[in-house]
Amino acid sequence: MSRSASSGPPRLAVVGNPGSRRVALFQDAVAAAGLPEARMVSWLDVLAGGARFLPGETVRVESPGEDAEVDRLLRGADEPTRVEGSALWYARFTAAVREVARAAADTGAHLLDDPADIATLFDKRLCHGVLDAAGVPVPASPTSGPAGAPVRGWDDVRELIAAHRMPRVFVKPAHGSSASGVLAVETAAGGRVRAATSVERDRAGRLYNSLRVRRCTTEREVAAVVDALAPDGLHIERWLPKATRRGRAADLRVVVVAGRATHAVVRTSTSPMTNLHLGGARGDLAEVRAAIGAAGGSWGEALAICERAAAAFPDTLCVGVDLLPLTGWRRFAVGEVNAFGDLLPGLTGLPGSGAEGLDTYAAQIAAVLERARNDRVSTTP
Q1: pLDDT by residue (tens digit) across 305-357?
Q2: Taking Cα atoms as reference points, which of 335, 340, 341, 342 lies closest to residue 127?
Q3: How many angstroms separate the Cα of 229 from the Cα of each of 67, 71, 96, 157?
Q4: Are 110 and 104 in contact (CB under 8 A)?
Q5: Which residues contact 45 (CB under 8 A, 6 or more apart)?
Q6: What's the DSSP call for residue 326?
Q7: Rounded to 5 degrees, what are φ and ψ at 182?
């Protein structure tokens, strides 16, 4: 997207929910850089058709989370813990992002987040296909890309597991986040099936997110959850065995800003899901780097994989990459790429990243200022 030349620092706007942690952290970074406060454009205004931008503004698109009314308008339900409704949420959210892009184009404002990238990042099937086509190592998947196999329910899952010889898989809502609705499914001889998930099912069959990972121990129970999720779209991936540290499975969230891996946090868990809100815990990055080196692996290659994943979305300033170190600590795969994967308060940049001493938001502001300086230099006679 083109940017209008400017003789001064960029004028910022943020599309988000006033009072959310994300907007507050972004505004703190803006203030720390000595810039005027970013002009606030609320998601409620966008959803009401009121997206307005000023000529030449640089616009950050922030997550629509942490606002019950916004979630109700997107999901079409009053219960924010419900799992169902992700397809409607996706359709309405991506339409709202397109409206932001249209309004920005009308005034020559510049978006830091590309609408097409966001749409792909919020569809796990499409995102997996883009990464695979770019040569990024990802788990095998029969549902990858636009031509992936459809999943209409548990019967399809069973058939795909058998056809692709994948006895252990993750079944994920195509448009979910934060492990919402994810099942880690294991099948064994004799037709045995079990799964780990944070989904709770009430007596009426409705699905809710909980803050604990539970075990489904019968095929009937697993099938009921999958069948309830299937209308919103499902994605299946081979469950790759993760490396362990101190008896806990480990992965990493790596933030990539302007093409460079700037921040990383280790997440560990005794369950298949390492998400911190589901009982995962932060691990020691120095220990992980040492384990990789001792095994003959390369930390530099691990970060390079994350940067290649981010490069598949070149028109988006920042993404969060979920990096899976495989058993033995020598090989890596990318589990997901997240459009809003930068909420890591207090985490400062990696040594040698150029973001030392900066949190994820400050690193993005620094990248925006660097781009603005380069634009001024390139337009100077």
Answers
A1: 999 999 999 999 999 999 999 999 999 999 999 999 999 999 999 999 999 99
A2: 335
A3: 24, 18, 24, 12
A4: yes
A5: 51, 52
A6: B
A7: -75, 140
